[in-house]
Amino acid sequence: MRSSALAFYIALAVLSVLSVSQAHVGLLRPCARGSPRAGCPAPTGGQQPDYDLNSPIGTHDSKTLPICKNTIPQAPTTIKAGQSLKTTYTVGAPHGGGHCQWALSYDGGKTWVVIKTMIRTCLQGVAGGQAYSVSVPIPANAPNGKAIFMWLWNNAIGNRELYSNCADVVIQGGSNGGKLSGVAPLFANYGTSSLLIPEFGAAGQDDKHAAFSSRKKVTVTVAKK
């Protein structure tokens, strides 16, 4: 094969990978589990790089993938309690924005405490290919130690989907043990038994925002070290 033809097929393969990874929306920083992005730690435990990091984990019809999308922990990012964490995202198709939730777990993803919620305005007005970031306040009383940081997104327009990425983190500057209270996440459009949030791209359409007000209260307790 001539060098020019070989270069063409290599470029085509690279563009194919990039087009897949840029579809929809995914967590860029802090590094999501399985992320193939530059500057992120290599996947561990036999996990392969997730070149489809921006794809949904399910729809209202089915659960395609688990919460977090990738379940194998990787090298953590250090974050500070009492400070705002700047999160950034790769945006392919923002689907009119929608609802976003951010949460922490100290027990491997069994229990989550929501630390920020955006109703309707998350990713709103963002075009594909644009940079997008959100500052997420880490509670000052967040217990120190290893945790999982999760992002959830229910899109406003298109298939009724749920997106999720998780980053492994180490929290510093908080409490040595203690409790963190809040509400549990709402996992909507994630299987037939979940809440159906219909399309709400136009003003006046039902976005089920009342369901977020009735999320279950939860408290997690972390032992002192």
Automatic annotation (TrEMBL):
Residues 1-23 form the signal peptide. The keyword Cytoplasm does not apply. This is Chitin-binding type-4 domain-containing protein. InterPro entries: Cellulose/chitin-bd_N. It comes from Dissophora globulifera. Pfam families: LPMO_10 (PF03067). Residues 73-169 form the Chitin-binding type-4 domain. Keywords: Signal.
